[in-house]
Amino acid sequence: MKKTLKKLCMAASAAALAVGMASAASAASTKLRIQTHFSTETLSGQMAGEFIEDIKAMSNGEIEVEMFYSGAVVKAAETFDAAATGILDCDMTGGAYQTGKNPAFQFTGDLNGAYTNPYQQMAWLLHGGGYDAINKLYNANNMEFIGWWIPGPESLSSTKPIKGVGDFKNWKFRSPPGIITLIFKNLGASPIVMDFNEIFTALETGIIDGADAANLTNNVGLGLYDIAEHTNFPGFHSMPADHLACRKDVWDAMPAHHKAILKTGMQALALKNATINEVKNAQTAKDLRAKGINLYEWSPEELAKYRAAVQAGWTEFATTPEAKELLDSHLNFLRNMGAMK
Fold it and tell me: Could you tell me if 163 and 109 lie in one domain?
């Protein structure tokens, strides 16, 4: 009898210990300071807010996020470094902002015409070795790549008609850093790299004739078509993938279930983002036409001229071993899919 009671007590103690350990594990917390370049007024800014609510719910409140919108802490292009050095914890802008470090970062964000839709590009990430390829570069810069969200092809905004490549001659436009400046220079344009939140004023004051900013819906959110009466739709010139990337030690310190929640949350955001933008952009196109904005759909001949410039630009831009390796990874995937010769 005494032996039985002793065994029962030992079992109860073990059970209590297990419950205690489980409670301790469930009490794990992750607090993240994240910056995005999007404002709360844009569709993308609103979706970033939804992402925060999703990961909070999935983690039962264990993951807490303080989100800084519209580059509130540092300029958009400085967000990656701010996270890597501890001013922030995570960067929710895009890898292509970091091409000054290594041109390879271009191929972690936007291939400017290689992929035709977000689903194709996400396929490389999920099924073509994309996570490992990107993190080889990010880890070397003290960051961990967690996921992409891709709104789809962007549309240019312009105060002048942009019906074809010929209209880019001497066209001054806001450009993000990276390969796009090279491509458009080769087409005769004058790209001016500036922060996301300087675009409206630059357009309003005539410093620029147009902007490579976002897709139709986000351009409306930025107020660009209040000034620029010309755009192109469907978009073709750029399809940037915004990322979530966190400092490596912050990522490594997270419990496994928090890592899984963040990655799964980003993949859910990617699907919601791509699909809602497809719906919203179609409606936005109707609304803009009704307001008298000129929407140009480029001919196959004009698109071919642009894509020839892009392919030349890839080769010219991929000047480091890391850039060549990432570009080859994308191109091999596209060729295996039959999407490129």
Answer: no
